[in-house]
Amino acid sequence: MGKRLITQRRGRGGSHYRSPSHRHLSEASHPRNDSGVGKILDLVHAPGRTCPMALVEFDGKKVYTLAAEGMKVGQDLQVSDAAQIRPGNVMSLKNVPEGTPVHNLEGVPGDGGKFIRTAGTSGTVVSRGDKVMVMMPSGAMKAFDPKCRGSVGIVAGSGRTDKPMGKSGKKFHSFRSRSKAYFKVSGVAMNPVDHPHGGGSHPHVGKPSTVSRNAPPGRKVGRLSPKKKRSK
User: Fold this and answer.
1) How many whole angstroms separate alpha carbon 197 and alpha carbon 206?
2) What DSSP character marks residue 189?
3) DSSP string, 59-115
4) Contact 140, 126 (CB under 8 A)
5) What is the DSSP code (8-state) at residue 187?
6) What is the rounded radius of gyration, in angstroms, for the C-alpha atoms of the chain?
7) pLDDT above 80 (res 107)
8) How many Cβ atoms from other residues are within 10 Å of residue 100's Cβ?
9) Which CATH class is domain 21-152?
10) Is the pLDDT of residue 176 over 90?
């Protein structure tokens, strides 16, 4: 009996590939523009994230935000365009000096933060003008609207990958908290009933791996609708 592909199982949902949102603390959105000054009450572990989160209180209302390296309990967190250049403070990119590390950047002003949120990562403001140019952790340059907000500093938890998992079960539970499967068997190693690339006397695809973009889910594996190389 053939098995469903991982992509089919994930799309179908179920207990294994559904993110356990009941364990997640909160969205890591920036506080509102009018939040002003808050106080960091605690730094807590966040299941499903690679970095810890900070519990911040603004005028009696408690919100969670990504923790930055150098944050500490009792510290004031400023959310203002006139904020100081300190780890965790939130301001518009147009007010961040060149060379400053930033994280949790908004793609569109007001969306709460979408870019550079993994533990130990940060971008660097390169130039400011009609667009703010930021060098991403990958080294690529990306242009942002000057009104987009970001947090100053580096995302906390940079030593996450230094400690080995120790055993397979640790890795299994770590990936499951993010609704991912850390193991992935190649299609050519399967039987024909399990995968379109399976079968044969030795591991090989055995047929063109190019598939149509309109192929049904059980056949949509390999190179998805590749485009013809453009002549220069």
Assistant:
1) 7
2) G
3) TTEEEEEE-BTT--TT-EEEESTT--S-TT-EEEGGGSPTT-EEESB-SSTTS---B
4) no
5) G
6) 22
7) yes
8) 16
9) mainly beta
10) no
Distance CA 88, CA 83 (A): 10
Does position 1 have pLDDT exceeding 60, yes or no? Answer: no
Write the pLDDT tens digit of every residue in 185-200: 888 999 888 888 999 9
| Complete DSSP assignment for 6-57 | HHHHHHH--TTTS--GGG-----PPPPTT-EEEEEEEEE--TTSSS-EEEEE
- Determine the pLDDT at residue 90: 94
| Of 76, 84, 55, the residue nearest 67 (C-alpha) | 55
Residues recorded for the chain: 232
CA angle centred on 17, ends 13 and 19, rounded to 5°: 100
What separation, in Å, do the N-terminal and C-terminal C-alpha atoms of the chain show?
Answer: 49
